Amino acid sequence: MSPSLTTAAAATAPAPTSEPAPAKPAASGGPAESPAGMEAEAALLAAFAEVPVVSRAVVRPAAGGGLTLTVTLQQRNLPGNSQRRYNVTAALPAGAPDGGSVAALVGLPQELHADVQLVSVSPSGTQQLVVLKGNDTSGAVLQVWRGARLVAELVVPKTLHGALVNDGYFASGAAWAADESAVVYTAEAPAPERTPAWCGPESLKDAAGPKSWRGVGAAVEDWGELNTGKRPPAPFVLDLTRREVLKIPGLSEEHSVGQPTWCPPTTATAATAATATTASTGGGPSGLLLVAWPHAPPPSFPRLAAAAAPRKLGVVFCYNRCAHLYHLPMTRGADGRIPDADPAAAAAATAAATAARTKAPCISDFLPQAKSLPASALQFGASAVRLCPSLESALSPIFSPAGDALLLVSHSEAVATGTHGATGRLYRLAWSPERGSDGSSESCAVRLDWRPLELGSPGGGGGGGLRGELPAAVQEALDRLEYRVVRVTPRVGDCSAPFDNLIWLPKDRTGPLPAVIAPHGGPHTAVQLAWYPPYAYLTALGYAVLCPNYRGSTGYGQAALASLPGAIGRNDVDDCLAAVDAAVAEEEDMEDCLVDGGRVSVIGGSHGGFLTGHLLGQHPGRFRCGVMRNPVTNISAMVAASDITDWCYVETMGSEEGRRRCAPVPSPADLAAMFAASPAAHVDAVTAPVFMMLGAKDRRVPPQDGLQYLAALRGRDVVAAGPPPATRLIVFPEDMHGLDKPQTEYEQWLNAAWWLKAHAGPRNGQPGEDATGAA
User: Fold this and answer.
1) Domain architecture of the chain: domains with CATH
2) Per-residue pLDDT tens digits for 452-477
3) 235: closest CA among 314, 145, 174?
4) pTM, to two decimals
5) What is one cellular component GO term in this UniProt entry (predicted)?
């Protein structure tokens, strides 16, 4: 969309209190179009969809001093319902002045093809690994680029590994060895079995015969939401000296293994023959650190942990899953011996490495070679050794630049309490490249000085960095956006620690604003003063957006967080009400308040949808309307099908009682407690219009949960509870819990704006009426 069109759209966008147009009849006499009368809002939302976001950044030293920054950005492709991904490379000059922002010169973007799953540049900047999607017979295609040409391409068969894992949790990118002779990455482990080829030969080749097929085979549990149908992750090494891919041995198959990290080299100046033609950055491989997630519940859930074959629970945003840190020794040598290893262990290591070694077809095998490849092979230790055994959670290991310390993040508090989020800790381990860790660790705090980075266009004429390239309507909306943080004191419960109410609002306001309270999901997460396109969009339409970090949110101490489990539907609900009251009472220049208390609506997803249902049901006179996105509405129904049954117990009954009672099948008493804590218990009291949006493939809060709530609302006893309010339902057939596909995101927020426009403000300036004219 051109800037002129988006600017016009923003200038003509109606106030949020305007009545929406009725459904528009189709020109051909077909179905009416709905929502109608939203052309200006739709154009503005399309402009917001053009704004890119940074998904990854890699920093490396530049040859002439300073730094080179490679940034991967994503931009929504609405017609294609996908994310465009592209890289930009920025040069940060040496000797940047202290204080203020740092200006960087950016080259033109290079779009990544949809088949590109990973681009990893070596530390020296002279090599690049590109991982492409596989096909029916291959898990992935690995390309190694050096200088200005492709030097190797390997097709990895599915018998070695499946698709690349690069989800930001099990793995983030690939890691290069210090001498750049090997790269470690994470991919799905191969299937352990397959059915025979039925009703015909496996491959017809040149013969005639009936067509065969393979069956589905035995079901294998996965890690739930966002991991449906995926095999467990496992680490693999691409050995560039021998052009082969190795599965890393040493850990039980009853683990998912990821986040591989190379240990510092034992000799910083050592270099193998394999790197004679490349820029070496250090010694050869000396070992790997690996994070392993056991395929079993944590010991803090005694009933689940005692099962002979426990169910694998969901892992996305679930930091109460055990994650153990291991060290696997390795070296490169023709004899295959691991330093300081006994003969039996060395023999076992050699056998394991030989069994793991698979040569993938490589196009460079058929090209003339300037010289023979080195014969020395990577050799692994007989088994991996667990580090920090006292920590049930050890994630994101990273070494200090000098290689003398290992830093890691632990969520052991979440594992112990059973809550999906808790206060994390940063640990430091002393490390010797020759001896590894001595096993001791200490909790530490690191203070970092952050400086904003402005990425400017070549020539420096753009001004304002990447923000100067935004659509004009978005730029105007951001210039008119203001933030406010209001400190709120809780009114109920044992914990009285204050929390923050973050408010997005337009600068050019006159008088109290219509407001939307948007409680976050989780519940153990938090909203920050950051870039949230839907909130900026609603603010541009004239609403104040309230985001309370109610008790139970992260960032306010473990005591405040721990006060919510066992009190959901009570403490968090009253905190949301207190946040609204504080915004209504917040005065500006002692003349007028920020928010009109009579024009407040509520929008929330997941646990935020749970709070939306509770606010509408427990306090029906306070809110004009509600929008629920994949909401938790009946925990007693959710527990049977969700990938996080532990959440249902802990949040309903509290940490200690919930962990004790958590079982594969809930008891009648468990179900009664879960229902009592659910919005469904108050559905007959709801009077405000309700708009619900569901993802048909949601495994966290299955859509049947929301459908049951809507059926109860629409089909309630009219004599006992009165007529139901207006309702609307949209089900997105291909979406999961996040409802984050570009077209889904666009449609849901445009419909939310339409719903607010219809119900959230007085009609024709007459207080007490909604857009339909009803009192």
Assistant:
1) 3-49 (no CATH), 53-93+104-114 (no CATH), 115-194+223-444 (2.130.10), 474-634+678-759 (3.40.50.1820)
2) 666 554 444 444 555 667 899 999 99
3) 174
4) 0.88
5) cytoplasm
